[in-house]
Amino acid sequence: MASTPGIRVPGTADPAELLVRTIVGQQISVAAARTHLGRLAAAAGEPVTTGVPGLERLFPTAGAIAATLADQDSANPARPLRLPARQVDTVARVARLIADGELTLDVGDDTHELAARLAALPGLGPWTATYVAMRVTGTPDAWIPGDVALLAGARAADVVPADLPRPAAFRQLAAASDAWAPWRSYAAAHLWRAALEGVPAHPEPPRKDTP
């Protein structure tokens, strides 16, 4: 951890946008999610002048997303979200809930309560609920179940043996994370970095006064 002392828990400037992006990005690559979201922004986002080449639209509001997806023809090859129908329905439903004020996400929310509310929505599982709640509230102590990038980082950091089967590896990683409380979100950030860069992170039980 000493090699990256400035690492912090990622937050979000727009909780609604984060939730939509996370749902779209479930089970696909970052590059694929970027393509889908770019088409969605082109179809529903408001034009904006920035002076930055390529930065020409705002991310769509929840209401604009709900309206656009309500009119989406699943047989149209030019539709913005070319994802399984269930996933598109989840995005549309969540966007409508946000637009109607029935679903709120705020930095002042209790992390566990927010995660529980999200997990109760059809189409959102524990990974999505915990990840979004962690970033919206900025909690220093959240652990995301079943995150394959965390597992990859743990293998790179020798926290979990590389040859351990995935189910057992997830169990061992979850047990190891107990030692990192109450700074598990920071440990996750280091493990994500290890997964991306392939460099050792070696999370240790941090001091209780600082992450």
Q: How would you characterize the overall build of this protein?
A:
It is a single chain. The protein has 211 residues and is mainly α. The protein has 2 domains: 15-137, Endonuclease III, domain 1 (Orthogonal Bundle), CATH 1.10.340.30; 140-211, no CATH class. Helices cover 50% and strands 0% of the residues. The chain has 9 helices and no strands. It has helices spanning 15-25, 30-44, 62-70, 85-99, 111-119, 126-137, 148-156, 166-177, 184-197. Helix 1 (15-25) packs antiparallel against helix 4 (85-99) and helix 1 runs antiparallel to helix 6 (126-137). The N and C termini lie close together (10 Å). The model is unreliable at 200-211 (pLDDT under 50).
Query: How far apart, in Å, are the first and last alpha carbons?
Result: 10 Å
Query: How many alpha or pi helices?
Result: 9
Number of strands: 0
Q: How many independent structural domains?
A: 2
Q: Low-confidence runs (pLDDT<50, min 5 residues)?
A: 200-211
- CATH homologous superfamily (4th level) name of the largest domain: Hypothetical protein, domain 2
CATH class of the largest domain: Mainly Alpha
In CATH terms, what is the fold-level topology of the largest domain?
Answer: Endonuclease III, domain 1
Given helix and strand content, the structural type is: mainly alpha
Mean of residue pLDDT values:
89
- The proportion of strand residues reads under 5%
Order of helices and strands: HHHHHHHHH
How much helicity do the residues have? 40-55%
Radius of gyration using CA atoms only = 19 Å
Structural shape: globular
| CATH architecture call of the largest domain | Orthogonal Bundle
